[in-house]
Amino acid sequence: MADPVSLASGLLALVIFAHKSCVTLYTTIQSFKTQPKRVRDLVDELGELVGILESLTDTVKSQPDAHLSALELPIQRCGNACEEFLQELQKCCQRSGDDRRSFRDWAKLRYMGDDINDFKDSLAAYKSTIVIALTDVQLRNSSVTLERLEGYKDLIRTATNDLEARLENVDAKLESLLARTVTSSETAELHRIKDERLSTQRCLTICAQLSELIDQVQPTLAYSASRDSDATPEKITIDGIQQCKTSIEQTTARLERRMQEILDRMIQMPAVAQHEDTEYLARLREEWSTARQCRDICSKADQHLQENISVIDNHATGDEAVQFLVSNSQKTIHGKNRGYGDFIRQLGGHLSDQSIQKVSGDFLQMSLRRSEVKVSTTHDGASINSSHTNEGATNWQPQYGSGRTLKAEPRPDVAVSQGSSSRGGSD
């Protein structure tokens, strides 16, 4: 197993390279006097990316054992893309003959066949992937608020959808390039490569559809098994489906390696090597690999949320409510206990099964004792009320407690009469 410090050193070097490339592109575009809105949006995206890379640098330095090695390929591709885009910008300036004060041909600027908006979206994908990886590290080491956790889930979903769309775009470009190459160089080997690539892509699509179907079925089966402790068929099915999903993941990994080999063969083909799109194909291959790596990072982060984090939001209204916010495993808990009423009992934390049962029993005993006190108080009040009624007192009801009997006091008019007699007698 590789040394964490060595891995961190390699990743740190890539982050420094990517940061330098982003800053250089950022300052270069900023130096142009004319900046349309899409160019300003690109500058804003670059500025945010620079800030995220700085946060990543701090994390790698302070936590060399953090699980961030998966970011190596996206970080390297991010730095390369910024350098290559800067080269295209400089070429565009030379062709137009304008300097940075008068340059206005932003609409003609192209990188890998895409315009400025597409390049900005690719940078946003890198930024989202880095944010997801950093947040995943933070969740492993500390807790966050429930609101932020929900925002993190939304970020994963959005980033995954954007990366899927980017993969489709790259696949379409590969198909178009391969079609042009085969047309210009009619060789049997190129035809075989094209057919194999299409077949591999279809198989990857099938695996993705099966995995999505399993994700939809699993929660329903898990819920049925949780309701019935003897639900052996459901448990057997869950185990089988999980094995199937594991097999699909392994198959997908093998297919993706196969696709890499196909792209490598395409670049090394003599007919393709003579074609003007060789460098473009190499970039597409790198972009294809990076997009899939970013998608895997998002998938693993989402899996970590589902397997290792419990999100609980308890809300109770009424007297003597009981709320549990506990875990008997190593799952991280993110949630709230909110109760409104008297004598609410709440429990939170990581506890063993025995501790949970003990506290549950204590809560039950507390509730029973309060019920006994209520019954006793009601009976005492009823007895006092009956006694006062028999003595001819008013029909007093124990609405504000059991009450107590007051001592007899002399009436004021009697006291004045006795005083007068004494004084009269002394006279």
Structure description:
- It is a single chain.
- Helices cover 72% and strands 7% of the residues.
- With 427 residues, it is mainly alpha-helical.
- Among the domains are: 1-187 and 291-316, no CATH class; 188-268.
- The strands form two sheets. Strands 1-3 form a two-stranded parallel ribbon.
- The longest helix has 40 residues, at 188-227.
- It is globular.
- The termini are far apart.
- 18% of the residues are buried.
- The model is unreliable at 413-427 (pLDDT under 50).
Attribute tags:
disordered C terminus; 11 helices; 427 residues; two-stranded parallel ribbon; mainly alpha
- Tell me the strand order in the biggest sheet: 1-3
Q: What percent strand?
A: 5-15%
The main pleated sheet reads as:
2 strands, parallel
Q: Mean pLDDT score, rounded? A: 74
Low-confidence stretches: 413-427
Number of helices: 11
* Structural shape: globular
Radius of gyration: 37 Å
